[in-house]
Amino acid sequence: xxxxxxxxxxxxxxxxxxxxxxxxxxxxxxxxxxxxxxxxxxxxxxxxxxxxxxxxxxxxxxxxxxxxxxxxxxxxxxxxxxxxxxxxxxxxxxxxxxxxxxxxxxxxxxxxxxxxxxxxxxxxxxxxxxxxxxxxxxxxxxxxxxxxxxxxxxxxxxxxxxxxxxxxxxxxxxxxxxxxxxxxxxxxxxxxxxxxxxxxxxxxxxxxxxxxxxxxxxxxxxxxxxxxxxxxxxxxxxxxx
Length: 241
Ligand code: ATP
Description:
This protein has 241 residues and is of the alpha/beta class. It has helices at residues 42-49, 67-73, 93-103, 108-121, 137-149, 167-182, 194-200, 218-222, 227-235; strands at residues 2-9, 19-26, 31-35, 57-62, 65-66, 78-81, 155-159, 186-190, 203-208, 211-217. It has a domain at 1-74 and 201-241: Rossmann fold (3-Layer(aba) Sandwich), CATH 3.40.50. The protein has a six-stranded mixed β-sheet with strand order 6-7-8-3-9-10, sandwiched between helices. The site of adenosine-5'-triphosphate (ATP) has 11 residues, from helix 1.
């Protein structure tokens, strides 16, 4: 279980908190959708889980241990796949994977196997020798994801992983994410695409202004409505504006 317990985070003393007492339980092996309008606090929460930011109040507990303790013995167990492309455009796909595996501290003797597995899992073998800058939007998204997989994470934090990709590439990415979780690993998935969250997530949280408005298994969150209807009703934001 990943227990997010009463987290607070404020970037500056004079601004409202980005997270204002967020509590969410995420079951290991689940795909948990994190939904919220722009500025709701999704990226801040993911950054805290990834250890890029430190909670100012509250705590994150994984399998009964505090995040810091848990991560200290498993430095690559949590991977963040950011919203922005996080690779070198001039390097090939294979070179990027090798480089970022090195950055994550994957030992030299394991690097080749890990990179080959990440390539295969993300079905990027045919473009392994292409420069990243030559890839389509969908393939770039897959490379972003593949880089996160080289550390063999148990928990994958995905920040809007399908932005800017066409529907067929999107289906492909969703299938890869599903397969990742099917092996018992955990995914926290932020997206503005409600139909994606309905399609692949077992659970969801809707947050706004740094607070949880609703959380639970998808069927309970929806209560016979579409996720979009629930989202609009709770947040007052229309996705079609
Ligand atoms: P989006 O869907 O647009 O990515 P989000 O739900 O991920 O939004 P966050 O990026 O976590 O929201 O932002 C939450 C709040 O914190 C917003 O009010 C935002 O302006 C503020 N914020 C985020 N990053 C910073 C920063 N580096 N410095 C100051 N304020 C920030």
